[in-house]
Design goal:
eleven-stranded mixed sheet; disordered N terminus; globular; Rossmann fold; alpha/beta; 9 helices; about 35% helix; 13 strands; about 350 residues; two-stranded parallel sheet
């Protein structure tokens, strides 16, 4: 997505350093200017390195590359410690939002910490900044088919993870934030048989946009979702949405859940309010068909465009909670085969 998105911390740090170095050099030709420039350059390198540094904690942070119709994309796979060769673990695919990197998203969501405790693998594909300078996934370019090409590359990354690592291919969930949520929804509609569950956090309702122009309107809540007719049933959907989101209109959350439910004939249950300590309160509405939850909407009061319960040091994270990572994994885990 591209509306009201902050520039990435990495790009901003480098730009600030270059600007400061240029000003220092122009103002004086003295040795002090050279020292200042050197210090700022080291700070810029440190900022760049921090964005690539593996998230803290036990386990393996493995880098890889996948090639598909959308070109090549880098990915990182997190493997909890002590995984046996014969094991087959669930896989959680995590798609970052605009202005984020794969490593930054891992630190923001702290999903790896949960993966260690619950024993699952986590795949973090990363958008190429040469393709999109803001790091946004192309979830909307369905008319030009660019979105489908990018989705093909992401599926190649998932296939590669299943081939090279101890993944149970029948136990894959996918989640995303913002543009990542839109791309996750596109993947789930293109390949519903591959995913046990979908989690959309602060994303646009699936099928609401087909171009850059319509994407902006959809982000503002001015477009209706239009799900394609599918031969396969859709995987269950969890929508997490803040009611103070100024980037993606909160109406998108309800629209996503309702359209997903309508595709399976599910109806809304009575909403329930969750309050725990100082966390933001949340209203949860389940949509069920024959006692099976098809879609669930968690509308969080006071949350903006940020991962709920995320690391406060990372962009697009709100530490106050409730914990979206725990909610996402719990929802996916309920859909896994026994």
């Amino acid at each position: 997505m591209s509306k009201r998105i902050r520039r990435s911390p990495l790009g901003s740090s480098l730009q600030r350093a270059v600007t400061a170095m240029t000003r220092a050099t122009l103002r004086t030709g003295s040795r002090v200017a050279g020292e200042v420039a050197g210090k700022l350059a080291r700070q810029a390198v440190d900022a760049a390195t921090a964005q690539l540094r593996p998230p803290p904690g036990p386990g393996d942070w493995i880098s890889g590359q996948a090639i598909g119709a959308g070109g090549m994309r880098r990915f990182f796979l997190f493997r909890p410690p002590g995984v046996a060769i014969a094991e087959r673990l669930p896989l959680m695919v995590m798609l970052h939002g605009c202005g984020q990197t794969a490593a930054g998203f891992a630190r923001s969501t702290r999903m790896n910490r949960l993966a260690v405790r619950e024993r699952f693998l986590v795949l973090y594909p990363e958008q190429d900044r040469r393709v999109n300078p803001q790091g946004c996934w192309d979830w909307y370019g369905t008319v030009t088919r660019q979105a489908h090409a990018e989705a093909s590359t992401l599926m190649a990354a998932i296939d590669q993870a299943c081939l090279l690592y101890p993944v149970d291919p029948a136990a894959i969930g996918i989640a995303g934030l913002s543009a990542g949520a839109g791309m996750a929804a596109l993947l789930a509609t293109l390949h519903p048989e591959r995913f046990r569950a979908l989690v959309m956090h602060s994303g646009v309702a699936p099928g609401a946009a087909h171009s850059a122009a319509s994407a902006l309107a959809a982000m503002g809540g001015r477009r209706e979702p239009d799900l394609p007719a599918l031969a396969q049933p859709l995987p269950p959907l969890l929508v997490i949405q803040g009611d103070r989101d100024l980037v993606v209109a909160p109406a998108n959350g309800m629209a996503a859940a309702q359209s997903w439910a309508a595709a399976s004939g599910a109806v809304a249950m009575e909403p329930r309010v969750l309050r725990r300590g100082r966390r933001y309160p949340a209203t949860v509405t389940d949509f069920k068909f024959k006692r099976r939850t098809i879609a669930s909407l968690c509308l969080i009061e006071g949350l903006g465009h940020a991962w709920s319960g995320g690391d406060a040091r990372q962009p697009f994270s709100d530490v106050k909670g409730p914990d979206a990572s725990k909610m996402a994994w719990a929802f996916v885990a309920r859909q896994l085969p026994a």
